[in-house]
Design goal:
This protein is mostly helical. It is 66% helix and 0% strand. The model has no long low-confidence stretch (mean pLDDT 82).
Length: 122
Amino acid sequence: MFASSSGERKSRYAGGPHGLGDPDDYSLRTIEKNVVITKIVREKAKYEKCSDENKIFGDCCLNNGFSMVYKCKTEAKCLNDCMAKWFYNDEFVKECQNKYLQDRREYRLTGVKKNPEQKMSS
């Protein structure tokens, strides 16, 4: 499957200036669609779009300790409803996907990964 004419193994994702893949390839692998993009959508929704609900829920948890499971149900439901709204918003998901593809292209061109602080701020 990955063997070349000379018999050595060759990755189908190799190529590009640093051997990290073609920077102009905008297709997504299954793992990227199902895991990476959903993680980005969830984090961006939680910390950017639903930050007020997240803060209210966090404060409730801090104030109630172990009883938060029972006492913070309304706050948890509010946070989950907000996140679900963004998780199923096709335009928002497409925005996160495009941002991921842009970051992946930059990584494949330069070979330099972004720091987590840079990801959240951009």
